[in-house]
Amino acid sequence: MEIHELSPAVGSRKRKKRVGRGPGSGHGKTCCRGSNGQRSRSGGLPRPGFEGGQMPLQRRVPKRGFTNIFKNIYNIINVEDLNKFEANSILDPEALKKAGLIKKIRNGVKLLGKGNISHPVIIKVHKMSRTAREKIEAAGGKIEFL
Q1: Its pTM surpasses 0.70
Q2: Which of 73, 79, 143, 144 has a Cα at 20 to 30 A from 63?
Q3: Which domain does 60 fall in, by range?
Q4: Within this chain, do residues 60 and 94 fall inside the same structural domain, yes or no?
């Protein structure tokens, strides 16, 4: 087989509809776009959100408060998630990411106190709740803050 003998599978390529080629074609005059007006023109659509001159929804809805763009959003893990690790293992953000508990180490890790842990671990996090600290220390584990 030579490269000039290659062709697409039968029925996989469809010819483009040729419109605007006179009344005999069946696709003349309005070119399958209905009657005249803005939508029949090339590029003739208003921008997204345009409501025909009516006050747009985005401007009608009242605005309240603000969004703090400097807010730190921590990766949240719970004490019960640490049971999958072996006893006395060192759990830093890289180990938590490798285990699939967090996706990115961007803003830090916060440990919350949901659930229980049965064995001691050494955990390195950025923030921790009081109940999480009590449960880790009750199991004999150690806590280090980054």
Answers
A1: no
A2: 73
A3: 20-65
A4: no
